Amino acid sequence: MKRHNFKRALCIALSVIMVAGSSMTTFAARGNYQANALKTAYTNVMTYADEIGVDLGISYSDFAKEYKGYKSVAEYEQVYYNLLKPMEQSTLVATYSARSSSSSSSSGSSGYYYNTGTKCPSEATYSKYSLLSKVKKGDIIYESKGGFGITGHVAIVEGIYTYNGKNYIRVIEAIDKGVVRSILDDTRIDERGGSVYRVSSATSTKINTAVSFCVGELGSSYNLDFAKDTSSSETNWYCSELVWAGYKKAGIDIEVGGLHGEPGVTPRDITTKSSKTTKISYK
Length: 283
Description:
Blueprint (H helix, E strand, L loop, with lengths): L1 H50 L8 H6 L7 H18 L40 H4 L5 E4 L9 E11 L2 E10 L2 E7 L1 H7 L1 E6 L4 H13 L4 E2 L13 E2 L1 H11 L27 E4 L3
Parallel strand pairs: 6-7
Antiparallel strand pairs: 1-2, 1-5, 2-3, 3-4, 5-8
Helix pairs in contact: 1-3, 6-7
């Protein structure tokens, strides 16, 4: 009787092992399939980006890491195409440097409010909105008319300064001419579809850290890629990457992640979609 029970128990144990082994094999197969699918998607996206002249600057490991939260590899791959396709259609990427004087570029420098250094242009006006009393150091300026009309553009407020007896708002941003100082005024708000966001949990110390980081990058070049760098030794930036990196250095990750985020760090990821930033009224 005991021998019979032993044999039965042994058969059950072997069956469990065989089922478990089969499940593990299936799980491993699924893992390999997904890894292969991600590698194929990465190759497809990078090839397409290269064909239309966009340097994504994203490694496969980062590409795979950001896949978390998406329902399928196909859906994730399509997100990249949704961002890249309009760039190809508008032909802005291929002629970006040549068209730096055009106001339709991602972060063009044709307006008087761009690349102003430590001076305030005489054209600057602050009579329509309450920008000088509402905007604070560390605020993020989001402009819907930027980013090839896809992702928008952002800048970080360095502070309120005085030039020739006139108060003005100075910002730091990555535009086609590189990381520069510019200004924010009523006209820029209107012309660029501007709005103001504040990092909700940021203390004055963290704000100073974030702004100081961006100040330290003045003079660096511009590069539209989807890389996510936070190193002070980085030599080129795109607008939202710079602002995100500043707050990341201060210990606050303002980017929305997972399924709700976009490849790289887009302006929408750190403003309209982020739970860490709040829209501020300036009217």
